[in-house]
Amino acid sequence: MVESAAIPAGQGPFFEDLGVGQLFASAPAMTLTEGLAAAHQAITGDRLALALDHDLCRAVTGGAPLAPPALVWDVAIGQSTIVTRRVRANLFYRGLAFRRTPVLGDTLHTRTQVVGLRQNRARPGRAATGLAALRITTTDQDDRPVLDFFRCAMLPLRDTDRDTGHADDLDRIGQDVPAPDVPALIGGWRLDRLARQLGGPRPAELRPGQRFSAPSGDVVSSAPELARLTLNVAAVHHDAAAAGGRRLVYGGHTIGLALAQAARVLPSLVTIAGWHGCEHLGPVHEGDTLRSVVDIERVDRLPGAGAVVHLRSLVRADGEPDRDVLDWRYVAVLA
Fold first, then answer.
1. Are 184 and 101 in contact (CB under 8 A)?
2. Residues 6 or more apart from 77 whose CB is under 8 A from it?
């Protein structure tokens, strides 16, 4: 079943408009260009060397310049927002895995399928809402898999008194996704050449349980610009009235700044292969200053050079008091 004709074009569904199995595939495709990558980098502060240094990238990968991984997932998420224009909040992302590493010049297409629905319990004084679990699959211009992941969005009901009967168990959604095949993803890369260019700590110096604190915070700026840049049409990121009086920052913006901070404390970070999961713990607003710590959870050495390192970024926003806003667990390649 593809996008219901009962949903007015450009408006997005309410919770009761959705059914498990429904497929949305009409978001515009987007070509990853140098200009797009530069605009994205200016907002998120991406510091991954292979996405910034095209000559080094060719020497290490033997191919065209890589697209920044955060740009790729931001575009895929943005394309999925044709389902979630009316979103109130995004609760989680799970099981994100890169199936290949896109390069500049690739064009991304995204399909979003409803895989679970659960109506929230009615509460006095609160709008009626439900949770929609979505599977997002992104391919390139040759229909090669790029990304596959799940997200969970909270959507309002049109009819506040309606009982949809939707009561799916969403806790298991995205929990059993196969891990990314990192050796296949970076096959042929000369990580030894990259290691000579980047600072430490080296993978051999990392141990589970280590914690690194970003030395400084990052202010959240250009929030609606990032949403527009990546095709994100969720109204709460553009319209203060839709957000209840103050615009919400798109969650990928917070993730992008967390990645930039992780790359500052781990300069040999090469790329991101996937996410175990990502929980948004609280709202972020433009002007907030975000600070993070990065925990080492596991280190698996690669043959020859480098390692697959499982990381956890915990992000807080400055305030009185400070507040937790992100718990992101992900799989990185370090040289």
1. no
2. 136, 151, 230, 232, 250, 252
- Determine contact, residues 26/112, Cβ cutoff 8 Å: no
Residue bearing the bigger pLDDT, 210 or 181? 210
CATH: 3.10.129.10, 3.30.1370.10, 3.10.105.10, 3.40.50.720. Which one for 15-158+190-334?
Answer: 3.10.129.10
Tokens matching residue 115: 């895989």
Residue 161 tokens read as 């008194």
Whether pTM > 0.85 for this model: the answer is yes
* CA neighbor of 218 nearest in space, from 316, 72, 311, 90: 316
Give domain limits for the chain. 15-158+190-334
Quick one: tokens of 274? 């996937």
> Could you read off the pLDDT of 230-250 as tens digits, one per residue?
999 999 999 999 888 899 999
Query: What's the pLDDT tens digit per position in 288-312?
Result: 999 999 999 999 999 888 999 999 9
The string of DSSP codes covering 287-314 is T-EEEEEEEEEEEEEPSSS-EEEEEEEE
**What is the residue whose two structure tokens read 């996405």?**
51
